């Protein structure tokens, strides 16, 4: 078994940045993402967000590419939330692209706190602009 210590801060948005992550979906979505990441052999250190985007601080083993990890989580979580048995008519989807930032072990705690406190950062205007970009095409970054 290989030894690895890799930390990433990922961020991605809902389709057209619609406010699709409401209080009814939030717990179900986060629980699903953490379970799927665990199934893939990843470690979720934090998962948080607001109505139109999420932040995930995660360790991804080197055998799995970041792109494949994000693709799997985005696709399967949208499918899960749009389960045909769901009574929700408001279809869930993710926007293309994502942002990824690599972290050192000394930055992990700060990233975890930032992701876990997204609602506070956005309501108080203390969101860090450079961590709110979803892709390099975003201009301006997600607003608080």
TrEMBL record:
Highest taxon in the source lineage: Bacteria
**BP GO terms, sorted:** DNA transposition
Q: Which residues form the Transposase IS200-like domain?
A: 3-118
One function term, GO molecular function aspect? transposase activity
* Gene3D superfamilies (UniProt xref): Transposase IS200-like
Q: What is this protein called?
A: Transposase
**Organism, scientific name:** Desertifilum tharense IPPAS B-1220
């Amino acid at each position: 078994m290989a030894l690895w210590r890799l930390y990433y801060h990922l961020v991605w948005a809902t389709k057209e940045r619609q406010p699709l992550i409401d209080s009814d979906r939030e717990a179900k979505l986060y629980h699903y993402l953490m379970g799927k990441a665990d199934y893939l052999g990843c470690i979720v250190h934090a998962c948080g967000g607001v109505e139109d985007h999420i932040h995930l601080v995660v360790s991804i083993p080197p055998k799995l590419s970041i792109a494949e990890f994000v693709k799997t989580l985005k696709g399967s979580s949208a499918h899960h939330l749009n389960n045909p048995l769901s009574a929700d008519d408001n279809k869930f989807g993710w926007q293309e692209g994502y942002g990824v930032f690599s972290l050192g072990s000394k930055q992990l705690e700060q990233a975890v706190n930032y992701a876990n406190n997204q609602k506070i950062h956005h309501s108080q205007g203390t969101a860090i602009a450079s961590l709110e970009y979803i892709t390099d095409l975003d201009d301006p970054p997600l607003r608080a």
